[in-house]
Each structure stands twice: as C-alpha cells, then as structure tokens.
Amino acid sequence: MAVRIVLAGEGGQGVQVIANILAEAAYAEGKEAVYIPNFGVEQRGGVSIAFVQIDDKRIDSPKFPKADIVVALSNRAVDRTRQYVDERTTFVYDDSLVAAAEIHEDVIGIQAVEADPRSQRQTEAVDDSKQRKTVRLPESAGTIIPLSANDIAKKELHPRVFNVMILGAVLKATGVVSVEQVKAALEARLGGKFAKNPELRDLNYRALERGMGLVEHVGVN
C-alpha cells in the first residue's frame, strides 16, 4: 500500500531528518521509498517541507497532489500544507505551536544541544502566550489529530527530542514501517553518539515511544 506523507515546520524543527529516517527505514525494510526536501525560498528560518512516498511496489512519480498524512509543526506550516489536504488526509498538528529552536537539519534529538554552540540560548524558556496563535486548520481533512509534542518534550523528556516524538507519532499514525526498523535507522545515524553516551539512546527511544503513544489509531484514511 502506498503512503504519501508531507512534513512541514520551521527551519530547525528537524522535519527533513524525520523524513530521511522514515525513507531509510522503509528502504531497509524492502519497500520502495522516495524522499524530496523542499526548503522554500526563505532558506534559513523559513518553512521546511519534506515529501515522502513509501510503497510495496515501484513508485512511478515522485510528486503527488494530495497526501495521506500531513504533519504541520507551526502556524506557517499549517498554511503552507493545506493544499495537500483532502477528505482522505489525516492532518496532524502540534497544538503547542511554539517557536522552534534554530538547529541544523543534520542533527536530531538531545544531541543537538551538544552539536550547536547556541544551545544555551535556545533552551531558554519562551513566553508561550506570545508564541501561541490561533490558526485555521484545513476543513477538508478527513481526520485531524492535535498533539502537544513540544510541550510534552519540554516537561517530561527534553526539548531536543521533540522531533523524535513527532517521528513516533508519524510511525503510529501510518504504520508504514516497523518500530524496530526505525530504531535501526536511528542507530545508523546516531550510533556513535549513543555509544559515547548510552543515556542518549534511552532518551531518544523513550521519545519515540512517547510520540507513538500520542496517537490512538494506526493507519491513514
């Protein structure tokens, strides 16, 4: 079964990493996978969009007009992705909708704190009352799933595993690849850091499972 996924967020929220890991996990599992990044015209600090297709058979076209699941991690991401939504689409959004920390797209999870020298400034608390804004969700979506991954990551785990929680939510909502294969993809990307600090592995795995727990059903419309 083909699954078409659109992930979007502010530059630095890690949507490209999530998309890449999903595609790598699917490919390793013997599926066909196509991943196309789109950073938009804003580049640094703009909305980052990732398109992923995963199928059991050959994928004829890398582009698709509508997605089976759309994940939007900011107000601007909601606006930028509504064109990919129809009555069959599951629309997932983070209802905490706070400003993203600026980190490179090639890091994921708690390791970003170590990788980015600006981490101390970026982990300072933000005024949520100023960051939260009313956003118009796509009315045409078949299913809408609100998450509070950003808030939960900050309160229960660590702000830097927010994107790993989103990865878990996408995994649960689609069932497109196995949890074991996603963990293997994480190991392939971050195994060196995990070996130096096993607590990072545990934290990322807990974030993955916590994100899966935020979604009640498996399978897109």
Short structural summary:
Helices cover 40% and strands 17% of the residues. With 221 residues, the chain is α/β, with parallel strands linked by helices. The protein has a single domain (3-213), classed as Pyruvate-ferredoxin oxidoreductase, PFOR, domain III (Pyruvate-ferredoxin Oxidoreductase, domain 3), CATH 3.40.920.10.
Number of domains: 1
Query: What is the structural class?
Result: alpha/beta
Order of H and E elements: EHEEEHEHHHEHHHH
Could you give the distance between the termini?
12 Å
Question: CATH superfamily membership, which one?
Answer: Pyruvate-ferredoxin oxidoreductase, PFOR, domain III
**CATH domain topology:** Pyruvate-ferredoxin Oxidoreductase, domain 3
Q: At the first level of CATH, what is the class?
A: Alpha Beta
Number of strands: 6
| Helix share bin | 40-55%
Structural write-up:
This protein starts with a strand and ends in an 8-residue tail after the last helix. It has 221 residues and is an alpha/beta fold. The chain has a single domain, classed as Pyruvate-ferredoxin Oxidoreductase, domain 3 (3-Layer(aba) Sandwich), CATH 3.40.920. A 6-stranded mixed beta sheet has the order 2-3-1-4-5-6, with helices on both faces. β4, α2 and β5 form a beta-alpha-beta unit. The chain is built from 9 helices and 6 strands. It is globular.
What is the topology?
Blueprint: E1 3-10, H1 15-28, E2 32-38, E3 47-55, E4 69-72, H2 75-81, E5 90-94, H3 111-115, H4 119-122, H5 128-131, E6 143-147, H6 149-156, H7 162-174, H8 179-196, H9 198-213
Helix pairs in contact: 1-7, 1-8, 6-7, 7-9, 8-9
